[in-house]
UniProtKB/TrEMBL annotation:
Name this protein carries in UniProt: Uncharacterized protein
Domain of life of the source: Bacteria
Source organism of the structure: Pontibacillus chungwhensis
């Protein structure tokens, strides 16, 4: 997890606030002595951020859209209040064109999902997947009752994530096994699995999602450039992709896309 690289004891208050907000799914960047939301944030994120900071009575100085913590100290307990702030259920819908090759190729960036709509233990991961240019509609941390999962936008986004997962995330020893499945209303999803007699553990889920999220953030620009240079709207590529998708040959689709991107 990112906080292992710079221990909490070494962080000042501003750095702790930055860390907590990022863990909760806000895309935050440094701007001189200030913090501000980065591109990729939704229109509601700034309003939600102000609401959250005000609700928790955190002393903040605002300079336009930039903000600064008005104290050098920021307790771990306050960080926890931010990172564990509950999400809100929201409707997820897709149009038919989202499943098509053209929509996948044309979209250069991910989706701007509202941070506080997402479950707290998976929000950072959803935002990071979108930051890497892989459209992700939503995520659920499972609420300790069922498997945590991410919903991708269409089959091609799930196939592309499977490739990225193997090439960028396979180094991690994770608590759970995370696999892409090609089914459900969105076409594809990433789902965690555990041993039959094992119980879901919120801390282990969080640890897994943060590890993967920070790695994707680190390589986000590189991943977006690879996608843009590998997949095109030409007729031959479209025919091959759509044929594999409509026939349900999803593993062949992943192999074909991987060859194109190498």
């Amino acid at each position: 997890m990112k906080s292992n690289l710079l221990s909490l004891e070494m962080m000042n208050g501003q750095e702790r606030l930055h860390e907590a907000l990022e863990m909760r799914g806000f895309l935050v960047k440094k701007e001189g002595p200030f913090l501000m939301l980065a591109s990729g944030s939704s229109k509601r994120d700034l309003r939600s951020l102000k609401m959250l900071l005000n609700k928790l009575h955190i002393p903040i100085f605002w300079n336009g859209d930039r903000f600064q913590l008005l104290t050098n100290k920021f307790p771990v307990m306050m960080m926890k209040k931010i990172t564990e702030h509950r999400g809100e259920e929201f409707p997820v819908s897709m149009e038919g064109y989202h499943f098509r090759w053209r929509a996948f190729v044309n979209r250069k960036n991910g989706l701007k999902v509202d941070a506080l709509d997402l479950d707290p233990h998976i929000a950072c991961f959803v935002k990071a997947v979108n930051e890497a240019g892989i459209p992700c509609l939503a995520g659920c941390d499972g609420h300790l009752k069922h498997a945590p999962n991410l919903q991708f936008s269409g089959v091609y986004s799930g196939a592309w994530f499977q490739i990225i997962q193997e090439q960028y995330l396979s180094e991690f020893e994770l608590n759970y096994t995370w696999n892409v499945e090609f089914k459900g209303g969105s076409g594809s999803r990433l789902v965690a699995s555990k041993a039959r007699n094992e119980r879901w553990d919120r801390h282990k889920i969080y640890e897994d999602t943060l590890k993967m999220a920070y790695k994707l953030k680190e390589h986000a620009d590189e991943i977006k450039k690879r996608k843009a240079s590998s997949f095109k709207r030409n007729a031959g590529m479209k025919e091959e992709a759509e044929g594999l998708r409509t026939d349900g040959r999803f593993e062949e689709l992943v192999d074909w896309m991987e060859r194109l991107s190498n």
